[in-house]
Each structure stands twice: as C-alpha cells, then as structure tokens.
Write a structure and sequence with these properties.
Blueprint lengths: L1 H11 L5 H24 L11 H15 L4
Helix pairs in contact: 1-2, 2-3
C-alpha cells in the first residue's frame, strides 16, 4: 500500500502523469500478486524477466524519462 500511496503523491505533485502512475501501479500490482502467490505455494520469489517483460519495459521507459539526465 505504501508504494501505491507514493505513486499517488507523485501524481498529485505533478512529478508523474496519470498515465505513468497507472502504468507503474499496474506493474507493481502484477509483481506483488505474483510474489504473494509464490509465498502461499512455497515457490521461489525470483521470476524470469520475460514473465513481466511488458511491465519491466514500461517501468524502465518511465525511469529513463524521469530520472536519467542523459538517456
């Protein structure tokens, strides 16, 4: 919940757009859901990047847009 509140705060502060907030929230929720299911069934928490390729790529794009001085 803390991560989602942080993203909402960044949106309210106009540091990120609504589209970026939605994209980051969806990626986080998908990964968190996977980790939760892994814990329930005793599976390893690590996953192949390909399982979350679209989300990882979207997060990396937003990271580059916001935080890299010279992407």
């Amino acid at each position: 919940r803390g991560n989602l509140l942080l993203l909402q705060s960044l949106l309210r502060a106009k540091f990120i757009t609504e589209l970026q907030e939605n994209t980051l929230s969806e990626a986080f929720l998908a990964y968190r859901k996977h980790l939760h299911h892994a814990a329930i069934y005793g599976n390893p928490a690590q996953v192949e990047r390909d399982k979350f390729r679209a989300g990882c790529d979207a997060v990396e794009t937003i990271w580059n847009q916001l935080l890299l001085v010279n992407p």
